[in-house]
Amino acid sequence: MNIEILNATPFVKYKREMGLLSHYYSKTGEILFMHSTGDTEIINESDVVKPLEAEIEAELLTNDNLRSIARDAGYIFVRDYYTVYLNYCKSYS
Question: Using CA atoms, how far apart are residues 56 and 19, in angstroms rounded to an integer?
Answer without folding.
Answer: 10
